[in-house]
Amino acid sequence: MLSNTVKNLLNKEMKFGITDMSTYTNFQENIIKIKNQLLDFVLSVKNEKKKIICYGAAAKGNTLLNYCGIGKENIEYVVDVNSHKQGLYLPGSHLHIKKPEEIKKDKPDFLLILPWNIKEEIMKDISFIHDWNGKFVIPIPKMMII
To answer: Is the model's pLDDT at 24 over the cut of 90?
Structure first.
């Protein structure tokens, strides 16, 4: 006999569409759409000679950058609060990881938030980028410029 916890989880999975093939094909389409939007955005900003830096050297953000083919040619660098990551480079994209204090020095036009699941906290901590009209870029689940 299934416990109520398991039954509730199974119900949530069914509502989410876990058994429906369109859930997976739509997922793939959404991922390709996100890739194209982010890549188009980064290339257009670079063509306008504006600066983009990334916030957060998290694995999922690095995976996104590598999937999109975005690297040091398009992004200045990435900042991370973890002192153990600072001074190192992201694998694949070869972006240099610096201290968050660099944001105030370089005044980027855009800050691409790679750990999008904690975007509210980051935007609150780095709200000073609005002092020079800097904007936040949230790539997932839907690309937004704030």
So the answer is: no
